[in-house]
Amino acid sequence: MTRTREWVHAWLLLLPAMSLLVLFTHYPTVANLWHSLHSTPRANHPSVWVGLDNYRNLIEDPIFWQALTNNLWYAVGTIPLSIALALLMAIWVNDRIPGRGILRLAYFTPTILPMIAVANIWLFFYTPEYGLLEQVLAWFGSAGHNWLGTRSTALPALMVVAIWKEAGFFMIFYLAALQSMSPQLAEAAAIEGASRAYFFRRVTFPLLMPTTLFVLVNAVINAFRMVDHIVVMTRGGPDNATELLLYYIYEIGFRFWDSSYAAALTMVLLAILGIFALLQFSFLERRTHYQ
């Protein structure tokens, strides 16, 4: 009787959180999958079962493959750099240096800005001939360049914006992890004559692996859900050079009103994120030390 009462009590405690999880996560996923197997309802044409037709169209869609390729390059370009920069900034502002409070504030400030505001700030930097970046490069005799209007530089220019925006956010987690470490570890290493580089490689970085795993999961999600700055800065151009997967879903769903095809694209995006999550936890969990 006691075990039954404890079991009921435990499930009642879990019920509010589980209800929200099912209502806002599991149900939308299942509903989206069901919708992707039907046609988009029109004025005189109700939705009908089409099976995997939307997914066959997706395989034959060159813009989808362009968006997926762009997104993978975007992830490769932003995730390692933003994490490495965040770690370097955290280590620096964790030391007892003059003005470290101001430095922490400066590094974290981009994080609290809305992405729309960040995009407009960087539009001022990238504006051809009149932008701040163009003005600085002109001092060194460099010719003008349309950073967002050229295929070869448009996507890297967006990567810079994302790194500038996210590095300060990831820095906070690394800084908290560094401050939670016992100072006796560094003292013992100094007594043994270990260099700072050796101490970081053998002690600090392994102890930061739980934070790194958490930051990496968030960085991957952010790399595939960024859409705000694309709407403001490039709208996927030039010639689909900055067309990322989520922005393509937004265009299909809300510009062309093909909700079923957008649902199929969303399922592909969820599958990609699920695969990345499995890989991260499969390979990094073994290297993660929680104690």
Would you write up a description of this structure?
With 291 residues, the protein is mostly helical. The chain has a single domain (60-287), classed as MetI-like (MetI-like fold), CATH 1.10.3720.10. It has 13 helices and no strands. The protein has helices at 2-36, 53-59, 62-94, 100-112, 115-126, 132-139, 151-179, 183-191, 196-207, 209-225, 228-233, 245-255, 259-284. It is flat, with a radius of gyration of 24 Å.
Biggest sheet overview: none
State the share of residues found in helices, binned by percent. over 70%
CATH class: Mainly Alpha
**Tally of domains:** 1
Number of strands: 0
Output the radius of gyration.
24 Å
Large-scale geometry: flat
Poorly predicted runs are none
**Structural class of the helix and strand makeup?**
mainly alpha
In CATH terms, what is the architecture? Orthogonal Bundle
Number of helices: 13
Beta-strand content bin? under 5%
Stated plainly, the CATH topology is called MetI-like fold
